[in-house]
Amino acid sequence: MTGELTRGSFFLPPPPPLAFTLPFLDSMWTEISLYVIVLAIHVFRFAHLTILI
Fold first, then answer.
1. How far apart are the two ends of the chain, measured CA to CA in Å?
2. Between residues 35 and 49, which one has the greater pLDDT?
3. How large is the C-alpha radius of gyration of the chain?
4. Segment (H or E) for 16
5. Minimal CA–CA distance to 30: which of 16, 43, 46, 10?
6. Per-domain residue ranges of the chain
7. Considering only CA atoms, which of 27, 31, 49, 28 is closest in space to residue 39?
8. Is the full-model pTM beyond 0.70?
9. pLDDT (tens digit per residue) in 1-44
10. CA–CA separation, 37 vs 20, rounded Å?
11. What is the spatial distance between Cα 53 and Cα 51, in angstroms, rounded to a whole number?
């Protein structure tokens, strides 16, 4: 019971106030961070392939 409650609290954090005041900026930063993560994954895979070769 307690484990489920704590896990639920981790899955549902309180929304940041920026999400209400600056929704455009928040969505823009979300897109930028997702793009950076995908780019880093591709760069890491490419570097790993070149190291293997």
1. 51
2. 35
3. 18
4. none
5. 16
6. 18-53
7. 31
8. no
9. 444 444 444 455 555 555 555 555 667 777 888 888 888 888 88
10. 25
11. 5
Closest listed residue to residue 30, CA positions, set 19, 44, 43:
19
Give the integer Cα–Cα distance in Å for 53 and 44.
Answer: 14
Contact (Cβ atoms closer than 8 angstroms) between residue 18 and residue 26: yes
| 26 vs 48: CA distance, rounded Å | 33
Please report the pLDDT score of residue 49 as a whole number.
Answer: 74
Predicted pLDDT at 27:
72
Contact 26, 19 (CB under 8 A): yes
Helix (H, G, I), strand (E, B) or coil at 32: helix
Q: How far apart are alpha carbons 39 and 43 in whole angstroms?
A: 6
Question: Are residues 25 and 18 in contact, defined by beta-carbon separation less than 8 angstroms?
Answer: yes
